[in-house]
Design a protein that fits this description.
elongated, 5 helices, alpha+beta, 7 strands, 7-stranded antiparallel beta sheet
């Protein structure tokens, strides 16, 4: 079992690369368990930029895409249950789990701003959630500390869930919505930058890329 993958052609078109894969035991009960298989993709051109500005405690790149396959043991279909038939329950649970997972990755000020049906083109139901998030930045991005608290970069994260044969799959992505220097100077007009980088925000383009990737996850 492995995480859903993105087509090589899409990775080449968007300039993305596979950063890592991992698995984790999401739930363990005496007679039931859920294992999550994850893949994390990043925009190649943004890797060095975010390494220069990100709080090292944040576990997700600022321009990233993820895929997850959930394996239920035993599977729902072994009980004669089609995951699509209880999808409403799954989506309610997923919205909370997405938020908790985002916060566990180190993002802050996580707020659900939109929820919608999502057409993946396969005739199966899918539900997408949009979150406004604050991406924490390193203390070293400015030459001298001029504010209390931590600088952050406003970003948007989309996450989608849909039923598979025996459980559910998920995918989503995050992107910046404000330029790094603008975000710093908005939070502290007198700050002097210690790094000369740009995240080049393009929310409309990035949202469409995330949507296209969510449709084309294999």
């Amino acid at each position: 079992m492995s995480a859903p993958r993105l087509p090589d052609a899409l990775l080449a078109e968007f300039g993305w690369e596979l950063a890592r894969t991992e698995s984790e035991l999401a739930l363990e009960l005496p007679f039931f368990s859920i294992e999550a298989f994850n893949a994390i993709y990043v925009e190649s051109a943004s890797v060095d930029v975010y390494e220069a500005i990100a709080d090292p405690r944040v576990d997700l790149a600022g321009r990233a895409f993820f895929t997850t396959d959930l394996q239920f043991d035993p599977s729902l279909d072994s009980f004669g249950v089609d995951p699509a038939s209880v999808f409403g329950i799954a989506t309610s649970y997923a919205e909370r789990e997405f938020k908790e997972s985002i916060e566990a990755d180190g993002l802050t000020a996580v707020e659900t701003v939109e929820e919608r049906d999502f057409d993946r083109g396969d005739g199966r139901p899918a539900r997408a959630f949009c979150y406004d998030v604050a991406y924490p930045l390193s203390d070293d991005v400015i030459e001298q500390d001029v504010v209390d608290g931590q600088f952050t970069l406003p970003s948007t994260l989309w996450a989608c869930i849909w039923p598979t044969r025996g459980a559910y799959a998920m995918a989503g992505g995050m992107y910046p919505t404000e330029e790094f220097a603008d975000a710093i100077h908005r939070q502290a007009s007198g700050a002097r930058l210690a790094v000369d980088v740009a995240v080049n925000p393009n929310p409309e383009r990035d949202r469409e890329r995330v949507f296209e990737a969510m449709r084309r996850v294999e």
